[in-house]
Amino acid sequence: MIKLTDIDKTISSKFQKEFILKGINLEIEEGEFVTIMGPSGAGKSTLLNIIGLLDDASAGQYLLGEEDLTSLSDKRKAKMHKEHFGFVFQAYHLIDELTVYENIETPLLYRNVKSSERKSLVAEILDRFGMVAKKDLFPAQLSGGQQQLVGVARAIIGKPSILLADEPTGNLHSAQSKEIMELFQKLNDEGTTIIQVTHSEDNAKYSKRIIELEDGAIVKDYNSQEAQHA
Amino acid sequence: MFKNYIKIFFRQLFKNKAYSVINIGGLAFGIAAVLFIATYVNFENSYDKDIAASDQLYRINLTSFADGKLMQESSRTSPAIGGIAQNEISGIEEMSRVVILGESIVGHNNNFVRELQIFLTDPNYFKLFDIEVVKGNTSEMDQPLTVMISSSIAKKVFEDKNPVGETLAINSSNFDGSVDFKVAGVFEELPENRHLKPQILISYATLHHFIGKQIDQSYDWLNLYTYVTTGKNTSIEQLNDQFNAVLNKNYGKQLEASGSEWELGLQPVNQIHTSTNYAGEYEAGIDGEKLQYFVWVAIFVLLMIYINSINISNTRAHNRVKEIGVRKVTGGTKKQLFVQFIFESFMINLLAILIAALILTFWAPFLVDWFNLNITPEFFKPTQYLGILVVLWFFGSLISGFYPAMLLTSFAPAKILKGNFNFKLKQSLAKPLLVVQLIFCLVILSGILTTYFQLDFIRNQELGLALEDKLVVRSPMLFVEGSGNYQEQMRNAMTSIEGIKAVAATNEIPGNEIYWRTDEVFVEGKEKGGNVFTYLHVGDGYFDVFDINLLAGKSFNTDLDYGQEAIINEKALQSLGFSEPSEVIGKKLHLNQGAVPVVGVVEDFRQQGVKAEVDPAVLNYSPGDLNYYVLDVEKGKIEELLPVVEATYIKLFTNSPFEYYFLDEHFDKQYKSEKQFAQLFSLAAIIAIIIAVMGIVGVTTQLMLQRTKEVSIRKIMGASFQDILLIISKEYVWWFTICFAVGIPVAYLLFTNWLKSFIVGIELGWWFYLIPAFIVVFIFVASTLYQSLKTALVNPADTLKDE
């Protein structure tokens, strides 16, 4: 489904070109749950951003299914975001001025979903996440774990085929982390492709495949469950 | 989606209350000031435009030359010109002549009032000027001794009685006493924005009654206004050519003989109020060019408030960064985000114009009063400026919203959401805009300084007249025939009061125009110069009281009766063809009423200050009743003596109200439009500066906050408090350099040009720029001091831990 071929990401300053990613070749099938791991500066987030079209690769080709996403206009990118991607961030990134309900509703507004349908979709997800009572609260009134739940709800309400998560539990304590990871697993079971970046070995265990990056290159790519059994 | 935008907008608004108040308040006050200026300019431009055929209505003006040299451009013509218009020019439809009667006392059955706006005119005037008759009709206005009165005069004089058919007595020095008129009708009060606002219109036939019908043949009785209506689409140039050809045919020889040349020209009536080129206007208009300056001031204020708004949006940008990132990754396009921020700008501007309209509604009456403006309240009705509001809303929203929207939507979501995005204000236009605001402040401050010094300069010009410590008392409003000589009674009674040095009687006090003008003045054996002379009756001691220098000859012989001798000024001396004052003494001066000897020549004195050129003047002695009595009071005693003077006056003239002025204050009134200009300009300028200061505080606070980390690190490296202040202020020095380099030339060009519109103007010295520059630096330092010190005094331990 996702096919990256010879992807490079460089930043050029006056005198030199620095590689952040170099020669990445990667295929991720529909329905996979992939964890990208590696030390700081390895290029994990950059890779995730390129997959999520938040950043452009400097060289190489990016195919999503049959579609070439290598260089898209802003408008096409916005369309792809609407149709295919959901994002979960370490810092939750909820809009402070909007309530829980309104934050979750935002992606639907950009998808021109009718008001009545929006209401039922948001209600459904609030119910599923057990947050009905909190729907009128503002982000500042929630705990970190609750904020991240809203973040996830917002990411998946548009029914994206791919969920991208950059350190989704980085700001949470272990019980909250577990809750989010179990949610991810459940979403994956329901068919959502999930790609997460994490430092946490525990979180990585929830995924089926682990890709390890070092200095911008893939050094290991293995099935996490098999590795555990081995 | 818009519901979502509105929610976000209002929540942002209330979350950042201080910034919202600065932003919306700045816009609202600025817009209110601009609306006020616009209303003022609109009002001044509206004169005579309500007349139905306003675009076909013209006044005939006269430009005179002597020996090829321009002498005068005058709004007044002679009766024969009206005759030409009526009979000899094709393309003229109607004609009307208006003669100023001047101030008179009018009344009925012992109910008297003093009235200024009295004119003589023909029935056509009502048609040409679209005057509604509410009682009676104009048909009798072709009869002598007939008047039409305004509804307010009707109320004042006749109270509830129907005035039509009643008698109105008018006591005027021009009639040499009181004359009875038949009231033919009542007309609707004229609006304030008319160049003539007659209260009483006497039939033109009355002029024939007093001085004979032959006056209509006169070319040199240059004493009236002639108005005409033209056919639609008539070429004015061709009409002017026709007029001058006929004038040349009828009167060319006489003009040539006196070495004069005349040129007639039509001026649209609706432009009379905004042109100040013509002498002899009844009411001082306002210089159209000065109105243009107000338009510039308004544009200045608008730029200032929009720049301020842009800067405030920029300083708040970091608050919106996360939202932008989230919106982008959830599928919002750049266009949608742009629309959202422009929408917010529209909302902010909408709130601002609503508040501005409120401010204007409540403050306009106060401001009108304060600035002593004539603007009538209906000009402040919201419907009057709705158009401007809509335009300001639309363009203001785009101007103040466009750049921030572009800036905000340009942020890349990957950086924002990764959490390492740190929006630096210095990446935006904030600093250049701040420098622009400083430049504006400098220019505006130079403007205030220039206008005030110019005003002060023209008010303190050498006039050749002493105005201080003079109390003016109006002549008594009594109609008793043969009641004796008021001048003598006044002099005797007032000079007996201790502290009053002398009393001088005159028909016109300094500051007022002398309406009695004639060009029928010449000395035997010399040719008529073709100049228009003013003619004034004064009483004994006039020259002493006003401290007017006698250059040759002596003062009047007070043993003689009315008008037996003449004293002239230097201008008159030249116009009569003499160079030395002594040469003219004893020569017979021919005036309308006959020839009298010139007994003295006085230095030129400025009857109307520096606004009008000094006219050639002839002064006659009159021992009889004159319009004003000027009391020369010992220094500083004027307030103290006022009740004594009043008591003395009441004792003398029991039934007449005591009316008085302080002469210096009265004289100052003629600078009303200059004063208004200075005041209005200052109001707009001060608002602009306050707004700029708010902007400077907002931006520099943000800039300083963003430098906290840098300052903390420098401190750890060993920088002292002084080092830090130096680093912080180094940048300011650059800003000021740019500000002065741009602002001073701009101010110089603007204000030297403005000063050209005055007869006498000040020289702009270096300090006109140095003082504003100093004030700009002071304002800036004062408004940034707190934040600069706070940044310089920061404790690195606190700030670096946060990072």
Automatic annotation (TrEMBL), chain A:
One of its GO terms (cellular component) is membrane protein complex. SUPFAM superfamilies: P-loop containing nucleoside triphosphate hydrolases. InterPro entries: AAA+_ATPase, ABC_transporter-like_ATP-bd, ABC_transporter-like_CS, MacB-like_ATP-bd, P-loop_NTPase. The keyword ATP-binding applies. Residues 2-230 form the ABC transporter domain. PROSITE patterns: ABC_TRANSPORTER_1 (PS00211), ABC_TRANSPORTER_2 (PS50893). It holds the Pfam family ABC_tran. Keywords: ATP-binding, Nucleotide-binding, Translocase, Transport. The keyword Translocase applies. GO terms for molecular function: ATP binding; ATP hydrolysis activity; transmembrane transporter activity. Signal peptide: none annotated. Belongs to the ABC transporter superfamily. Macrolide exporter (TC 3.A.1.122) family. This is ABC transporter ATP-binding protein.
TrEMBL record, chain B:
Keywords: Cell membrane, Membrane, Transmembrane, Transmembrane helix. The chain crosses the membrane at residues 21-41, 293-312, 337-364, 384-412, 433-453, 680-705, 732-751, 766-786. Residues 297-410, 683-792 form the ABC3 transporter permease C-terminal domain. InterPro entries: ABC3_permease_C, MacB_PCD, Macrolide_Exporter_MacB. GO terms for cellular component: plasma membrane. It is found in: Cell membrane. Pfam families: FtsX, MacB_PCD. GO terms for molecular function: transmembrane transporter activity. It is a multi-pass membrane protein. It comes from the Bacteria. PANTHER family: ABC-TYPE MACROLIDE FAMILY EXPORT SYSTEM PERMEASE COMPONENT 2, MEMBRANE COMPONENT OF TRANSPORTER-RELATED. This is ABC transporter permease. The lineage of its organism: Bacteria, Pseudomonadati, Bacteroidota, Cytophagia, Cytophagales.
